[in-house]
Structure formats: C-alpha cells, structure tokens
Amino acid sequence: MIVYRLSKAAFAADLSGKGAEITGGRWNSKGIAIVYTSESRALCTVEIAVHMPLGLIPEDYKIISIEIPEQVSVEEIFAIDLPEGWNSMPDMSRTRQIGDRFIHDMKFPVIKVPSAVIQDEHNILINPKHPDSKLITIKSIEPYNFDKRLFL
pLDDT digits over 58-107, tens only? Predict the structure, then answer.
C-alpha cells in the first residue's frame, strides 16, 4: 500500500512522529508519537487546508510517498463504530483515546481510520515505535505547491 504525507521540507524524511507527539492531534494526545498519512494526495491537501487560516498559503512543503508492505498488519476503525460526534471540533477526546490505545497496545504497526474531513476517505496512522514500522519506507519526496484557491 502506498500512502502519502505532506510535511514542511525540513521534516520530510522524518517518520518519528515527533511533530504529532509535540502538538497532539485528532488521533493522539500530546506526548504520544504517531505518523499521520492519507490514502491520497488529495486527502493530504485537504487535511492541511482545514488547519490553515484563510489567506495563508502553506509554503515549503513536500509530498512524501510511503510504502507499507503487504506483510505489515493493519488495524481498521470504521466510522459506523465510532461514537456520535467523533469528527467534531474541538472535542477529540474519544478519537485520541483510540489512537493512544493503538500506540500503547503495540498490536499493530498501522491503523486505518476514517477522515473527519472527507466522508468515506481514510487516514493511515503509523506507530513509529512498533518493531514492524521499520519495514515501512519512504519511496519519494517531492516538492508540493498548494493551489492558492484553496486558501482564499
């Protein structure tokens, strides 16, 4: 499976999950390292766009293609199994509990979760501390330019 990640150029080759560990996110609490990726470049773009203030166009980004080999096991969470309001802002405590459990349990190196931004799309989260995460590799890192119309 090939997944995608958008990142500032300085961190493009970093799959440590340190950024998410510092800030926390929908699927992890602060202090928990996790790598956020998406099924498509388009979903990556939208996931960045929803977090940017209007008028501010992200610059100096790279699109990273990441290969998750078939032998790497993937847990899957379905939107229908999540509690009502799981995709709301700002309360993300329920999804953070799921992501934190995924990291702490160490049963799977990867978890597939529904996107809160685009219905029927998915984000793929990587546990950088799982032993099988070493099988996950960066295939390419390329410059990425956002279409300005997304931020006007």
Answer: 999 999 999 999 999 999 999 999 988 899 877 789 999 999 999 999 99
Half-sphere exposure of 13 (CA within 13 A, CB side): 1
Q: Cβ(5)–Cβ(64) under 8 Å?
A: yes
Cα angle value 138/123/126 (rounded, 5°):
50
- As a whole number of angstroms, the distance between CA 93 and CA 25 comes to 10
The tokens 């799309």 sit on which residue?
A: 121
Contact 103, 79 (CB under 8 A): no
Phi-psi region at 60: left, alpha or beta (left = phi > 0; alpha = psi -120 to 50): left
pTM of structure: 0.95
Do the beta carbons of residue 59 and residue 19 sit within 8 Å? no
A 10 A CB-CB count for 84 gives 7
DSSP E strand stretches across the chain: 2-8, 35-38, 61-67, 74-76, 110-114, 122-126, 137-144
CA distances from 125 to 12, 37, 109, 113, 138 (A): 16, 6, 8, 8, 15
